[in-house]
User: Fold these one by one.
Assistant:
Number 1:
Amino acid sequence: MKNLKGKVAIVTGGTRDIGRAVAIRLAEEGVKVCVNYCNNEQNAVETLKILQGMGAEAIIVKADVTKEAEVKHLVGETVKAFGNTIDILVNVAGGIVGRKLITEQDDAWYEYLMGLNMKSVWLCTKEVVPYMPEGGSIVNFASQAGRDGGGPGASLYATAKAAVMCFTRSMAKELGPKGIRVNAVAPGMINTSFHDRFTKPEGRENLHRTAPLRREGEAMEVADLVCYLASGESSYLTGTNIDINGGCLFS
């Protein structure tokens, strides 16, 4: 990819599934990667070993990206390791967590879902932008749920991801004059532990029958798109929310 070798990236939620694939894909292009994790240190250490085994410059940093002080710590550790420039921010951290119908939701659930999926993107963007030079790139993670409202019990997750899409467009306008591009990817059903936990087998089987491509996506296919958006190959793309779902946006 154009103009990636030697760049510095933060990948939040970068220790499993799509996040790990993104970290690996960027490292393949010579990017120095800070991989953020919150709870699973074992996954983080495994990811670091993979990256170091590739010969990549990489660190792992524990931080809850819904908390401002911990995001400051994440950015501070990245700067300490790689210098005062952060070229790429990939906001992967997020998740559906669980399914609750509107009558089962309470304030704590609302705050948690919106914090994990939207506040984290806002906080990380706010803290990284002062270190981001002209030519920098931010890639946010939205979701097909942000387009179609999600499945039963996923209303707050879908709403938060729709907010990420709007925030992406807003930041593209605000940061464009500084030469910083902001885009988002909106995955559909990707073969990850996310769907192993939260999607019923019959839903996945139905997708295999009805999807235009007759299959789920793979994490590395999403990572390829992220790498493209982070690179100079996409130098005139900003404010986009790119669907990657095998043609199944509203199926």
Number 2:
Amino acid sequence: MQKTMCGLVKQEAGPGDFVYRTDLPVPEIGDDEVLIKVRCSTLCGTDFHIMDWDTWSQKRVRPPMIPGHETAGDIVAVGKNVTERKVGDRVSCETHISCGNCWFCRHDMRHICKNTKIFGVTENGAFAEYAKIRWDVTFLLDDTISYEAACMFEPMGAGVHGVEAADVAGKVVLVSGCGPIGLTAVSACKTFGAVKVIACDLIDEKLETAKEMGADYVFNSSKVDLVKEVRALTDGMGADAAIDITGAGASINTDLKCVRAAGRVVCVGLPSKPVTITDMTDDLIYREVVLTGISGRKIWDTWVDFAKVMKGPYWKLERVIGGKYALSDFQSAVKAIRDGVPGKMLLYPTLP
């Protein structure tokens, strides 16, 4: 085993991009950990928060550290207590390293554990040739799932979790926002039996992709009265459920008006500022609408469900990838994202 590796490092507290280095020590694993040879990872909004050094990052990140948490690779070493993983296993990783002891962990809600450590944030992550992690937050991949697809479990899993929370089988579902997570939600809705999927966005090109990934109807919500259109497609009733990917207050309020009485609105996207419900009495209370949120992925239910979506006819990996870059050229991937290029940017320690 080599002694040093390449990787990206958040060198110090304060705003600034990651630094590419070739002299990082290969991690030494503990008794309950595995060492992963990283095949590829993707850039995430969280990584930009760390580079920008916002309040969220300041509370959690302790430089110097290796970022990166959306990843896949091969196990090349296991700790002495590890019996359920072996060298050669292909895996992806859950970001949330739960404690296993709190009330939420003991009640099968590890995804909202209050003592969570975060891979690539509070712990060194995957923007490197090798990464270590506790074995029980690795997900085994079968040979039908590529490393590139496996990188999507973590970020796109939020969209699948939203579909799980909406209980879409047999329902008419509205998906608001058609970025990569929204597109995954559209495909998951169809995979799990939604009878009609309506997608909306502000960009026509994204709506065309939504149709490719399973949407039955698409609307540019800046050009139409979305509430009117949804009611026209549902005999005046409204959608059974709405899944909001945008996090925008205007969109969430429109979602509430688009669902029927006793419908459900699931919030996946994170608002960048406080959201006001403009007519809580008539849109929510009197109509007994359920408004709920989701956090991350259910461990491991969402992963199993997303694997089914990946293997189905609707989800198309190539439609959610924005570009492929060597880890040493990560600045080009950062620039592409800051310039608004759509899709997830893949980083490879060594380009295939």
Number 3:
Amino acid sequence: MAKAKSSSRSKAKSILTDKSMAFLKNYINTPSPVGFESGGQKIWLDYVKQYVDTHFHDPYGTAVGVINPDAPFKVVIEAHADEISWFVNYINEQGLIYLKRNGGVDHQVAPAKRVWIHGKKGPVKAVFGWPAIHTRLSNPDQKEPQPKVDNLTLDCGARTKKEVEALGIHIGSVVTYEEGFDELAYDYFIGRAFDNRVGGFMIAEVARLLKENKKKLPFGLYVVNAVQEEIGLRGAEMIARRIKPDVAIITDVTHDTNTPLISKAIEGDILCGKGPSLAYAPAIHNKLLKLVQDVAEKNKIPVQYRTLSRSTGTDTDSFAYANDGCPSVLISIPLRYMHTTVEMLHKKDIEETIQLMYHTLLALTPKTNLSYL
């Protein structure tokens, strides 16, 4: 396949290695639906453990790599590992499969998509069927149907319920989209589940840079890849209580608002390729945010800003309000077309988000004053 042309910016030396990129592609392409994240977590942990002193996982599959595990002061860098998906909910006698959401999956992008149904006998290929436009418009007096959860079905080729079940498909089988990692022109990457496996990739790369640059941290660093963010920040809630960190740096995706149908007046002005996004919100610790801002300025890392009101909607909330309170900050990467199969982000933003987290860790110490009063 011919490679897309890259911009001149790609000629600058990248902090991402060939090994890094191979890991990213494999990680993005590995299904890790909410509640069933173990496939991606095994790949992530296998990569990270070479850069940490020890590692562990909790009962629900959150994976953690630890540097300086005996240090009393604990700092977390965190992302979430799960992707939105579907559950098989009902199989009719004609062999068509009806679904229920597993996380905030968008029913409007489903028609005509190819999927994997993860059954007892392994993955089964299927498609979201949708009536041809000729049939939808054949009656001018009838309103054209819109895709909804209750009128979408999967067709795996079976023509009876018994044939579906013979493939190992059962009620509760999880369904993920087929699309994986790809590259576009001008250093853009696309794929499903960049929300937020790109975050897991970036925190792993921070650990790599610390190891390869022989940096010694004056605290314990917990590199956390949490499960079940997409259904209420549950993995972060569990692991925050277990680790009891003193500081948490969370990374997730945020909306690129420079595409049609998004209001900048509501969502702010964020653009892919212009650097990581920092947020103002009650859960964001102001003094920790100021430290990150100072680090960005010192290291000439461009940043963008948005506000997030009552809740960040990210694992930041779980860490900030865990235990006795944990100073927390959110460093986001701009993303186009969130919760679709063509989530898009820019290579430069990935590199600069990694650098911002890395240099923030080097600037942070147990004596950093994070007191409000």
